[in-house]
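Consider the following assembly input.
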Amino acid sequence: MGSAELGKERRAKADYTVALAGNPNTGKSTVFNALTGLSQHTGNWPGKTVTRAEGRFITQGLVFGLIDLPGTYSLLANSVEEQVARDFICFGKPDATVVVVDATCLERNLNLVLQVLEITPRVVVCVNLIDEARRKHIEIDDRALSAELGVPVVCTAARNGHGLDRLVDTVRDVATGRINTAPQIPRYDHQIEEALLKLEPRIRDLVGDRCSSRWLALRLLDRDRSVIALLEQWAAGQPSVKVPINQSRGEILA
Amino acid sequence: MNSPSLSHLGELLKEVDRVRPAGASNLNDTIVSSIYGRAEQIAGLVVKRKAKPRIDWDKKLDDVLTSRAFGFPAMLLLLAVVFWITVAGANYPSEVLATALFWGQEKLTALCNWLHAPAWVNGFFVEGVYRSVAWVVSVMLPPMAIFFPCFTLLEDMGYLPRAAFNLDRLFKKAGAHGKQCLTMCMGFGCNAAGVVSCRIIESPRERLIAMLTNSFVPCNGRFPTLIALAGLLVMGTATSFGATLIVLGLILLGIGITLAASWGLSKTLLKGIPSGFALELPPYRRPQAGRIIVRSIFDRTLFVLGRAVSVAAPAGAVTWLLANIHVGGLSILAHCAGRLDPFAGLLGLDGFILMAFILALPANEIVLPILIMSYLATGSMVELDSLEALHRLFVVEHGWTWVTVVCTMLFSLLHYPCSTTLWTMWKESGSLKWTAVAAVIPLSVACIACAAVAQVSRLF
């Protein structure tokens, strides 16, 4: 589609690429609009964002290409949306991934955050709708949350613009490497961990540092067909059609 | 080819099977439950709930708005209110705009005379291009400027997913996907956008059903036409109330036919079992009225208007040429209309109306402007500054009856989608066959419905 072409060109000019992930109805598109100044139409229902929307923002002279991924509850590739979001976070190599979560139902949203952490360490958690939460007498200890996850946490009320400056600063620092994250990845029972330990080096031989070998190993153990198919494509040296890649850098196919 | 890597991968996959823990059939469950356990643990540490609010208003509202008993009446009522505000509110600004724009036309004609320009310059540019643009602006702009913000307000408050929830049961029964009602809602804005939004449906079968039936809901290009014609039908009576009911009825008819067509498709061309999905209802939120109004006017209203004007201008020019180039004493348009007349008559229309629908393939917005121009080119010159003028032109001068109005509305509601939508359909489905089906199904439904009304009315 024409928009994809346009996006490619636009991203080529960006210094950094930032992915925006999150459950449906967390105000992800509102955050996107607030950051990019685009007035993309936002409606609030599941599955509203069908394609990836792309925009950009500039801070301290650096251009950040922002990619709004479809809202998903998990990254287990049960649906098209989940696969689009997952493939981009994993293979699109964003310099930072912002996971927008709903402050009023944090627990459910944390599942996605943990799954993102397994794929990439460069994550910023944006606890949105903090005003709604306050209205419902819910308080979130963002420092404790940041300590538990090992990545920066920023509270926002995107509709009113609260917290967005801090979000921009944090995203910039994570993308440029000024902030080093130490993600606390979920641990599994020792049988799984042992199997992962055996597989990881072999996967690293195959894919190098193009993708998290631990995550790939986990997906293989789980018999994830889409991941197996992708590895086959890689091994055969064929460009993958399904994965949205940053072609201007060509880092995946190189 | 890089076969060493491939064999490497083969070994790796064997290794995976070797190291996979015993009882790996529920490995996925183990992984998922580990993650959920960790999420629960973290949430327990960082979330503090002071006191639960005493009354859960969201739930109370949902009990009414999504209940079996009140869900549909509430939905109809809300839709009716939106349409009533649109119909009743649009008249006055329409008149003001029309007066201003047709004053402009007079001035332009005066300018042409002053410049001693040849007659065709005035005809082509002023009567052709300018007049069709003026009609589109004065008749379409006010309803859109009112309808879009109202609809966006409902959306922003969180009502639309509830409407989808209510309709979900019906779509399931029709063998289609529950998400189809979301794509249908999108179609109210623009059918091309509606077809694109069908991507949210995973099953290819159900996605095709949703795409093929999307044009049965009127897009905003057809709303103004339907509203104007509804106004024509109830002239002289309690206008805005009656017109609201008619438009509402047409929309219900569109939804009904969507369901019927989906059912038919799922039993014939696209057989299969409907797949399930979970529709989560988002919380109600207080809408940001100011921002919504500004946003929907700039993003939707002016966008759609711009597109309509850019299509109406060349279409106006073409129509003027067709109406003014004479072959054998008759204009090309009249020749075509004459040829179409017998068939159109069967559908309760006339040749000019059918011709207008054919010429308006690029955009449904311009059916009425084309029709007006075709009539004006053959009849006398009238200034179209209001619904009364339209009444005079259609009913008094060209012999429209209520059957003509009803059939035109039905044809507008049901006929093939515009060329943009068809092109999008082709892009999305990747198949010319299904694109053709997307045009043929609505067209045959429209012909059958119009013929039925026309023939039945003749019995009385």
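Confidence is low (pLDDT under 50) at residues 1-11, 42-50, 238-254 of chain A. Ask yourself how this observation constrains the way the partners meet.
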